[in-house]
Amino acid sequence: MSEVEVMGAWLAAVVVVWIYSFVYKDNVLYRFAEHLFVGTAAGYSIALSLDSLNKTAFVPLGKDIVTNWHLIIPLLLGLTFFLKYSKKYYWVARYGIGVNVAVGAALALRTAPMANIIKQINAAIVPLWTPTDLQTTFNNWLMVLITLGGLTYFIFTLFPKAEGKSTSVHKIYRAFFLIGVYGMMVGFGALFANTIMTRVGFLIGIYLQYFQPQPYAAIIAVVLAVIAIAYAMRRK
Amino acid sequence: MGAVVRRNIPQIIVTIIILLMVIFYFFYISSEVRTAFNTWDKALTDWVVVITAMAAIVGGVDILRYHVNQSRKKEPKQVFFSGIVMIMEVIMVAFAVIALSSGISIPTQQNFQWLYTYIYAPSDAAMYSILIFYIASASYRAFRVRNPPALLLLVVAILVMLGNTSLGELLWSGLLPIRDWIMTVPNTAAFRPITMGLGFGIIILGLRLLLGKETTWMGRRE
Amino acid sequence: MTAIEKIDKILSTRQLLYTLLIIAIILPLIYPVGLPIGISSRTKAVYDYIQDDSKVPPGSHVLIEIYYEVAARAELEPQVIALMKQLFEKNCKLVFLSTITYGPLAFQFLQASAPDVFEGKTYGEDYVFLGYIAGQESAVASLAKSITGTVATDNYGNPTSSLPLIVEANDASAYALVIVASSGTDTFGWYVRQWYTPYHTPLLFGALSVIAPSIEPYVNAGQAVGMLTGQRSAAEYELLVGRKGLGIASMDAQSFAHGLILVFIIVGNIVFAYTKLSKRGEKK
């Protein structure tokens, strides 16, 4: 590793430790690392957007303006976004935003019925009796009941609370409602377990990428963070 | 006239774009119309690619503006921290502009690479991973079984946690198939209504935009 | 004070819990134990799908969306590397792209982590990285129609029309498989709606563990051929392709950390039940 890379690796380990110090106490070193992050993140976002603009607009226009003339329109519409800071001409930005919103909505609108609804309904229609395979029968029943239960759970309008003695319709609704609740608890239990795996994975990745290569940097950063935390606690 | 230009014309543009993009996607009129539609459909999606990039630039500029205003408040601490944000942002953009003007790709510019590899990447990773500490403390302090659904949630969570790791295999080899079964059957069924709900939501939002009922995209000002 | 109350007082200190967690993760990484890793049927199904020459013919084109930030590298990068190894062994041609700004950074780290996988492969002919393309779902839709029509240059400034691989595979119909390695939920929906639904391009999901439950319906409905979830699947896939990487290296630490959190949950509930019962006893 060159000297510049070693310096960078030390800085990386230090920044990570100072950000983690927040979980113990908010302190000045955490604030420093946080603002460093915000500045580089904002700059990075602008830089990559410029790169994308270059690839998708400037270069095509430079290569063949006759065929790609239409790309001037989104460039102008994008520039109107800066007018949102003006008290008089803020509304000009709505033209650019409108095109964005409309195209995004149209792209999703024309494929969502098939992708999110019809295909899912197709997948939910499964045989409820497979004589050669009882496991599949059980799975299919569970699948159908929990799907119907979940859909019933999200109906907030058709079935008002029963006043007095509940009707048979309301009883069926409540049964599916409860199946939906318990079904979703299974889903959320799996979600919680997987959340732990993901977040622990992030921490493992950080250790292997930044602390293991530069342990001395991490140790020095920890010592400085402890001093900063002690100072913050004393001040309080 | 003012309101027409400020609100009505943008809404009409939105309505026309959505209508045309959806109608000609589903209905075939003739091959010439289909070819023209495909060309303009592609052009519109390319426009969005360009406009989105510009929007992200405006977002970055907003952060700069905010911190310029903060530093004007003249509190020493705030000036220092806002100064860090502004300096880092300007430096990153400066290197990007240097790359563009030299004709090289921005992510490959050496100084820009150094900054994003050794400052942005680790701090971004740290920010995302900090949540595990709160999950760990919440798992002791907040994850309490108060009713039967919570008990079911806990049991499933334990089974999946054991199945996800080698702990499960040490205890019993059947935990991995159980985890797979939980994920493929009850979990899928539980999230299916949510996926369908997402589809319904997309349709409803699209219709609201089409009919002009959804105007939040115009912002709060008149 | 009873024993349980003492335990509650000690464990209620958040900072102690954080420190225990850090120790549980770091110790097995410094002193690996080598706990067993079984292979689930779902991961095997993904492996078998790619191995099947009728599904992914040798030399076919595969698109890989790199949609994860640096933090998610630990879960998704090992998956991508293992998949890449298997695909390169079949001489498949890989086109990488990213619709998130972190993409170029993630790809740089990917290349640095797996130089052995890229060895012998020529940029432009065997693999290409298109870089970051703004526009999210619109970009995905536009790329499905024409890659050269959407982006004029790749991540390194090379004109896309001059790259043999892009010339061969310029739209959705040319791809045998699209791998979406994403730390977000929406990305999978974009590809389902803009690549699978109109063009029926097979999709393979590489997801964070936390995202997996919510995208299972797509896999179950056949809109994706399979899914790899998190470090567990990454470790299993590394075993299948025969390349030890971050996935396998992380599993000991995962097991210890999960064990610790399980202990926290169980002890927390024991304390809660004890407190509830003793309050009920006091009331009587």
Unreliable stretches covering 5 or more consecutive residues of chain C: none
* Rg on CA atoms of chain C, Å: 23 Å
Radius of gyration of chain B: 26 Å
Cross-sheet strand order for the largest sheet of chain C: 3-2-1-4-5-6
Beta strand count of chain B? 0
Structural class of chain B: mainly alpha
Topology:
The complex is a heterotrimer of chains A (236), B (222) and C (284).
Chain A: H1 3-20, H2 28-63, H3 72-79, H4 93-124, H5 134-153, H6 168-211, H7 215-235
Chain B: H1 2-26, H2 31-71, H3 76-102, H4 110-129, H5 131-141, H6 148-164, H7 166-171, H8 175-184, H9 186-211
Chain C: H1 3-11, H2 14-30, H3 41-51, E1 61-67, H4 73-89, E2 93-98, H5 103-113, H6 115-118, E3 127-132, H7 137-145, H8 164-168, E4 175-182, H9 186-199, E5 203-207, H10 212-220, E6 226-229, H11 230-241, H12 246-283
Parallel strand pairs in C: 1-2, 1-4, 2-3, 4-5, 5-6
Helix pairs in contact in C: 1-12, 2-12, 4-11, 7-9, 11-12
Overall description:
- The complex is a heterotrimer of chains A (236), B (222) and C (284).
- Chain A has helices at 3-20, 28-63, 72-79, 93-124, 134-153, 168-211, 215-235.
- Chain A is mostly helical and 236 residues long.
- In chain A, helix 1 (3-20) packs across helix 2 (28-63), helix 1 packs parallel to helix 7 (215-235) and helix 5 packs across helix 6 (168-211).
- The longest helix of chain A has 44 residues, at 168-211.
- Chain A is extended, with a radius of gyration of 28 Å.
- With 222 residues, chain B is mostly helical.
- Chain B has two domains: 1-108, no CATH class; 143-212, no CATH class.
- Chain C folds into two domains: 3-31 and 256-283; 41-244, MTH777-like (Rossmann fold, 3-Layer(aba) Sandwich), CATH 3.40.50.10160.
- Chain C has helices at residues 3-11, 14-30, 41-51, 73-89, 103-113, 115-118, 137-145, 164-168, 186-199, 212-220, 230-241, 246-283, and strands at residues 61-67, 93-98, 127-132, 175-182, 203-207, 226-229.
- A six-stranded parallel beta sheet of chain C has the order 3-2-1-4-5-6, with helices on both faces.
- In chain C, helix 1 crosses helix 12 (246-283) and helix 4 (73-89) packs parallel to helix 11.
- The chains are: A mainly alpha (236), B mainly alpha (222), C alpha/beta (284).
- Chains in contact: A-B, A-C, B-C.
